[in-house]
What we know:
This protein is mainly alpha-helical. Helices cover 51% and strands 5% of the residues. The chain has 17 helices and 4 strands. The protein has helices spanning 2-14, 21-28, 32-39, 47-57, 61-66, 88-102, 119-134, 142-150, 184-199, 215-225, 228-232, 241-251, 255-265, 270-274, 280-287, 307-319, 325-331, and strands at residues 153-157, 165-169, 174-179, 204-205. Strands 1-3-2-4 form a 4-stranded mixed beta sheet. It is elongated and about 75 Å long. The protein starts with a helix and ends in a 7-residue tail after the last helix.
Amino acid sequence: MEGIRLRVQDAMQSHNDGLTQAKMARAIGMGRDALSRSLSGQRNFSATELAKLSKVLEVSLSWLVTGDPRPEGPNGRVGQGEGWKHDSVAETVAFPAGAYREVGLSTGTVPQLEPGLGPEEGAAAVATLLNAALGQDFVHDLPAAIERAYGIGVFVAAEGPAFDARAMRSRDVTYIMVRGTGAWYQANLVLARELGALLGGRHEDIGIRTQAEDGWARDFALSLLLPAARVRSIDWNRQTPRGLAGFLWESGVSAKALAHRLDVLGIGRGPALVHADEGTLQLLVWQDPECLSHHRARAYRAPRIPADLFGAHLFGMRRGVVDGSSLAWMLDTPLSEL
């Protein structure tokens, strides 16, 4: 937190309005004494406070949290550098980094796969590790399998700007954030894609995101959830709608993802998949009306934060070290209810 404190001080001193501590405290709705203690190192800034500071000081939240300047904006200053654009998605995804540092937690580092390894081979090795970590088929709870296998956090964000998933890594924190959705089969795919981005060395620094989608990570995700050997073992021309629904459920993927995978492998889609025009969810519900009440179908509906981070913030609240605002944001719950 020492670096964050110094960056806040630097931003205040360089701000065009010449912000004093009193003005800053009023601007972000923070007590002057609390701000003074945070700036002197006696108290940690909460992730919520940092988000408010970034707006008032006109610097990126990612710079305040990590100290890494955006390429287009020297020292994180908004509006500097030609073509610079404020990225609300990146800053939302950067929020957990501040929550980790607020309670002094770090995460494991995801080891990269061997250079030159193809997505099929990489996915096969990772599947073995994920299954071992969960003690069953990892598709039953992919977020938990990733956390146990690699020691990193998996978050589900219920609110915020539109995005599907992002893997983020800084010097001491690595995690993946997924946008909340009822379409668990789509969330599984983008979560697997971001895991591939980390394992393949194609991750994004916190707060920075390129526009181009990485083909290796996408192919890795499809290979992880739809292994070629399993897909080839099925006679898709004889597949029934009920059999197709069962396959999609057990694989945790959408009909669209399966169709794409079959095309890549040069396998005919078969009549059941060709006529699955009603969409994945309707197909699954038609075959099994109770599937929506299954824990797998609810995996990405509600906010999710790693258990160790949750426990650390609760402990910090009891000790008075943190105020609970970061936990309230991550759980999408009013602070008064914590």
